[in-house]
Amino acid sequence: MNSPRKVAIVTGASQGIGAALVKAYRDRDYRVIANSRSIKPSSDPDVIAIPGDIGDRAVAERLVKEALSRFGRVDTLVNNAGVFIAKPFTAYTAEDYANVLSVNVNGFFHITQLAIAEMEKQGSGHVVNITTTLAEYAIDGVPSVLASLTKGGLNSATKSLAIEYAKRGIRVNAVAPGVIKTPMHSPETHGALAGLHPVGRMGEISDIVDGVLYLESAGFVTGEILHVDGGQSAGH
């Protein structure tokens, strides 16, 4: 069932940035395949909610299969799912390491490989990876080695994929947030977290959504790591 209406896949879509991205793409009349481990069914016929661990290739295969069978195409993939564990490097457990790699790296690899294969058939598409400014600009007092290892790898993969697919109509970009006011940060931490940014505040979910939508509409931009981080990447 082919349709000219565009289709986006959004991972980590049950709350926070992911849920806001689902709404933003629907507001642009995209149909959406939304995934997270705990996502609930959608009442919107143009949003297909698929629960499951994105680190599992079978889940990634189902997302793309549903996009094609329900809506006929895949135009955009937003790799928003991610795990951040702030611990001193020597305190990470083998389970921490496996969990972060499964979601941040395996989750990226499987769904991106499958989505790009479909985009290549169409001759068009866009991938956006949500990474972190910490991958390039570490902050004293914010231990983040596993985030740097995994999300830093996604930044590099973003540029590599952008070049590999530039002549095939597929763009690949990333948004690197600072600390964003999402449910993962309890309100009592907001004051301290605001102080990590030169602008003196935490980012809002809408700031990240705006960055993704900019990249969505910026047809001449590929291989970009867009820092939406209140000046963190400029210095401290």
Descriptive notes:
There is one protein chain. Helix content is 40%, strand content 16%. The protein has 236 residues and is an alpha/beta fold. Helix 3 links the parallel strand 4 and strand 5. The model has no long low-confidence stretch (mean pLDDT 94).
What characteristics describe this protein?
Rossmann fold; single chain; 16% strand; alpha/beta; 236 residues
Task: Explain briefly what this protein structure is.
The chain has 236 residues and is an alpha/beta fold. The protein has helices at residues 16-27, 57-71, 94-122, 145-165, 190-194, 205-217; strands spanning 7-11, 31-36, 47-51, 76-79, 125-130, 170-177, 225-228.
User: How widely separated are the two ends?
Assistant: 52 Å
Spans with pLDDT under 50 lasting ≥5 residues?
A: none
Structural class category: alpha/beta
Strand content: 15-25%
The total tally of domains equals 1
The level 1 CATH classification is Alpha Beta
Give helix and strand order, one letter per element, not per position.
EHEEHEHEHEHHE
Topology-level CATH name = Rossmann fold
How many DSSP E strands? 7
The biggest sheet, with number of strands, parallel, antiparallel or mixed sense and barrel status, is:
7 strands, parallel
| Chain-averaged pLDDT | 94
Q: Please, what is the CATH homologous superfamily? A: NAD(P)-binding Rossmann-like Domain
Number of DSSP helices?
6
Q: Which architecture does the CATH hierarchy give at level 2? A: 3-Layer(aba) Sandwich
Question: So what's the overall shape?
Answer: globular
Helix coverage percent: 40-55%
Question: Strand order, biggest sheet?
Answer: 3-2-1-4-5-6-7
Q: Give Rg in angstroms.
A: 17 Å
InterPro entries: NAD(P)-bd_dom_sf, SDR_fam
Protein name: SDR family NAD(P)-dependent oxidoreductase
GO molecular function, one term: oxidoreductase activity
Family: Belongs to the short-chain dehydrogenases/reductases (SDR) family.
